[in-house]
Amino acid sequence: MVVSCAAMRFYAERPVRVMLQLLADALAVGWVVLCVVVGRAARELILALQGPSRALAGAGDTIRGAFDDAARTAQQVPFVGDDLARGLGTGTGAGDALAAAGREQMETIAAVALGAEIGIIVLGALPVLLLWLPLRIRYARAARSAVAVRSVDSDLLALRAMTRLPVRRLRKVSPDPAAAWRRDDRAVVHGLAAIELRSLGLRAPARPPD
Fold it and tell me: DSSP of 140-162, one letter per residue?
């Protein structure tokens, strides 16, 4: 079932809990941004290694151009022009080989740079996202449902408290909270509902009249 994000409550109602949630969110987002910045910086650093390869490709293009010009000039020499042009063609092939090697190295370095960037971002940010995001979504769902029943069903909140919270916290409300809940002790039910809401950083329901 798809849950609308607009229906979720991502933040508590109590100021201290809200501040802690905002701090955790800021740290998580900041860490992801830092991973992206570091990944991009690493990519740029590796791409800087393309300098020699770029120079090699440029030298190859220059050599090829020089031999091409020389071959065209040699063709104009009477009787031996074609032979000279074919001999100079060897230099043209060498220039092509140098240019191709330089470009291949540049492509390899670019691939390594991209892989390093993706690796840093994924390995750095993914564990944080896998820990932080499910916790935030779980809280949002729990808080949404708690707020939805706060004013109409204290019994359900009390039952959730008994199934979710430590016994030592439950015994602060009543020595035997389960028995009090079964006999519909409204004061105990209200107290259990209140600690369930407080555990989520939410305001307690209005206390029923005695």
Answer: HHHHHHHHHHHTT-HHHHHHHHH
Buried b vs exposed e over 25-61: b needs ≥16 C-beta within 10 Å? eeebeebbeebeeebeebbeebbeebeebeebbeebb
The separation between CA 75 and the C-alpha centre of its own chain, rounded to angstroms, equals 62
Reduced to 3 states (helix: H, G, I; strand: E, B; else coil), residue 201 is coil
Per-residue pLDDT of 58-114, as tens digits, reads 777 777 766 666 656 655 556 455 555 555 556 567 677 777 888 888 899 999 999
Going through 95-203 in order, the beta strands assigned E by DSSP cover none
Q: 3-class SS at 19? A: helix
Which one, of 191, 145, 201, lies nearest residue 171 by Cα?
A: 191
Distances (CA, A) of 85 to 63, 99, 150, 187: 15, 21, 93, 105
